[in-house]
Amino acid sequence: MHSSERERLILDSVADAGFVAYRQLEERLNASPATIRRDLARLERLGRLERVHGGARSVVIAPTISGPLHLAGTPFDEALQQHLPQKRAIGRAAAGLCRRGEGVMIDGGTTTFQMCAHLDGLELQVLTSSLNIVNALLPQAATRLLVPSGALFREQNIILAPAGEESMPRFHAPKLFMGAAAVGAQGIMQADIILVANERRFVDRAEEVIILVDSSKFIASSGAVVCGLEEIDTLITDSGIADAQAAMVERAGVKLVVVDP
């Protein structure tokens, strides 16, 4: 297959879902891993895609903040009361994956928020963009907190910095705990492109991506894709997940953890 044909297929694959895994490209292109890496490197230099852990994704351009600071989606205080028993069980299970003294990233959200009560005494270093999570962890004297710089979005009480990577502290953490607006075959989705740009910065820094979503998030939905299912290591949800949805997650090579509310 000629290089131009391979590049067209690569770009089509990325455009379809926002992310494509190396193993998918090997199957579709019938090319060696070295050839695929060279193709991806060339396309990245041209600004057509970005190489990430496990594959390549579409280029996310972070918009400039101007005007009133509002995000699409449900305000935090309202979303906090939705599916609360499920979120509490998921948060407790996620906290159980943390190891004493390690660094973790916790993305803002009402399900990741439920981890906080179970982190006391673990002496974690936590990077988060959520002031709700900061406030929940402040009473924990042994928990060290880091936050990025940026603009405050009051409805979600979250700090977002579309200006660029330099707004994030130089911090490496083995685990990222992240929520989502929706989960589907195309991956993890959010309702607002500004959230996508910031969450990609977290994903690209993490060694292990752990998604926390209650079963209501497995819906037929459209939205901006943060990452493909192939980029996820573990997904924690509740026992309301349908068999077909569970099979979809496991087919992508994701470890599925199901908890009872």
TrEMBL record:
Residues 3-58 form the HTH deoR-type domain. SUPFAM superfamilies: NagB/RpiA/CoA transferase-like, Winged helix' DNA-binding domain. InterPro entries: Carb_Metab_HTH_regulators, DeoR-like_C, DeoR_HTH, NagB/RpiA_transferase-like, Tscrpt_reg_HTH_DeoR_CS, WH-like_DNA-bd_sf, WH_DNA-bd_sf. This is DeoR/GlpR family DNA-binding transcription regulator. It comes from Sphingomonas tagetis. GO terms for molecular function: DNA binding; DNA-binding transcription factor activity. It comes from the Bacteria. It holds the Pfam family HTH_DeoR. Keywords: DNA-binding, Transcription, Transcription regulation.
